[in-house]
Every structure is written in C-alpha cells, then in structure tokens.
Design goal:
This protein is α/β, with parallel strands linked by helices and about 350 residues long. Helix content is about 35%, strand content about 20%. It contains 13 helices and 16 strands. Helix 7 crosses helix 9. It is elongated, with a radius of gyration of 22 Å. It binds adenosine monophosphate (AMP). Adenosine monophosphate binds next to helix 9. The site of adenosine monophosphate (AMP) has 17 residues, from helix 9.
Amino acid sequence: MRYSTTGASVAENAQPLVLSYIKGTLALAHNGNLINTPELKWELIQNGAIFHTTTDSEVIAFHIARERVHSASVEEAVYKTALKIKGGFALVIMSPRKPIGVRDILPGEVVTITGKEVQSKMLPAAEGRAHCIFEYIYFARLDSTMDGVRVYDARIRAGRMLAKSHPVEADLVTGVPESGLPAAQGYGLESGIPFALAFYKNSYIGRTFIKPTQKERESAVRMKLSVLESAVKDKRIVLVDDSIVRGTTIANLIRMLKEAGAKEVHVRISSPPFLYPCYFGTDVPSNSQLIAAKHSEEAICEMIGADSLGYLRREDLEEMTGGLPLCRACFDGAYPMDCSGV
Ligand code: AMP
C-alpha cells in the first residue's frame, strides 16, 4: 500500500500501475516520494506524452518504458531510470518474465530475479546515505532489522533514554497501542515504574491518521481504542507514544484516561518535536498542521491536556539507531538533498 502522498486519493492512482509498452505489460508499485517529478514529467510532456494519473509513479513507469526502447533488457531500463529519479523511493516492477526490486535490499540496489537467478547491480553511491529516522521511530515493522539495526531494540533504547532525560514520579507506564508500546516498555525498564496496558485496541479499524478529515480522525481514535478503566483509575500515568504530529491522537487519549479516573497523565514522546515537512514519502501534513511547528512545548502540553510533556532529545537519535547516517529533517530541517524547489 502506498500513502496517497503525491497525486490525489482517486482510483486511477491506485497501485500497482499496469501498462502496455513495447515489450508487453509492465506493472509497477512504488513507495516514497520523488522531488524532481515536475522536471521529469515536463521532459515527457514536451515530447507528446499523456498521463492517466497524477502520481509520480506513472512518470517513473513512463521513463522505464521509454528507456526500454534503447536498452538491452528491462533491468537496464530500470537502472537508467533510477539514475534520473531523485528523492526517496522503493520500487517493485514486474515485466512479463521477471520481477525487479529497487532499494529492496541495500540502499541503491537494483535486483532482478530471472528464473532461479538473482542479479544485483548498485547505483553509483549517492552523495551520502541518509536512512529515514522515522522508520525506526514508527514506520517499520517491529520485528524487522533495517540496515543492521533491530527496530524493536531501537524503540526500547528510545524509551530508556526518555526515562533518563524526562523522569517523573508515577504509578504506571503505558504506551499508545501499538506504536508507543516498545518505547513505553523501555521507559519502564529504565525508570523501574511498572509497565501496564491501559488501552484495548480494536484491531478491525485501520490507521486513524489516514482518515481525510479532522472529525473522522477524532472519532476513529475513540472507536479504535478503549480504556481499561480498572488499570488507570486513581493512577499517576506515564503515557508514551512514538510521535505527535497534529496532536489529535494524544489529546483524545489523555481525555479518555482522565474520564476513566486517571489522576495525572505525563506524556513522553519517543521522538523529538516534529517541526518540518517530509518530501520523501512519510505523508505528514504541511507545516501549518504540525502542532510543534506552531506552538511551544509548554503550549502543546496545555493544549493536549497533559500534566507534563517530554520529547526525546535530538542528540539521542544517534544512540537510538547505533550511529547510522540519518535523515532527520523532520526534526531539524536539514534535508539530505536540495528540496528548496519542491
Ligand atoms: P496525530 O498527532 O494525531 O496527528 O498523530 C500522531 C500519531 O499518528 C503518531 O503517534 C503515530 O503513531 C501516527 N503517525 C505519525 N506519522 C504518521 C504517518 N505519516 N502516517 C500514519 N500515521 C502516522
């Protein structure tokens, strides 16, 4: 599944894209966002191209099809296209005879599977690697290991560091299911405050974040999670979540805990304040909707109704991910490539 980041949420933009080209059928699925789509699209449009969708994925597919005319194989065409596109991307391409993955294994790797044979070719080294910090904070599956770093361990470490930088007296530590649970456990291990579940998650409801309107997002949070009242009544609670973006989720959960009788709710976030937009595909809203871009920590604490609020410190991110070179532009605005024209 791809977030409806570039292009609208309409059926034509659904993936995989399937198109007819010189060699038959080509299917393409893409995650991430490109930052040079307008130039790439303009190059095609000037030569008479027409598009059925508004996604950057179709632009990639078109470039592959065009390169294929002068290439010995589809993988060569994919490789040439991958040299031209800029931004954050992972692609799976299916030609009539072989699947090809781009970046699925190592950063910058193009892998082609032909029968039982697996071929790999590296794109020239990018100016510098910059692994997405948000994968470790939130996106990646908890049971995955990305570029040598176990995601579960990274989240536990973040929780431990949060307990050191933002200690508080409390009766229990809990996490927002599922995204806040490992860091909450880490907080509990470091602080000695017992970890407990405070919410039950209805697993038949999808991600609340994806709902298009604020009203839908708010009601979805309430339908998705219910409070385990006996666990929280009269308790001082540390509530851990992985991030605050708009602030909708956490504000609702604090209200629900207090309605269920919680005495105090101290919020701890296992990432630094989210201040800048992402151009590489994490589908965060524009600056105007990022609560931390517009308000101080004290103001946010009051707006969400918490008794205290503490974020992971930026300098702790290196330790969290074992020194990997990172893109952490969402926290510090230092983008790994020039995004000023995006
Ligand atoms: P909110 O502050 O209500 O906008 O939502 C923040 C919560 O949404 C975080 O705790 C994450 O669990 C989740 N989240 C953060 N970024 C994303 C994203 N790009 N897509 C989906 N969920 C996200």
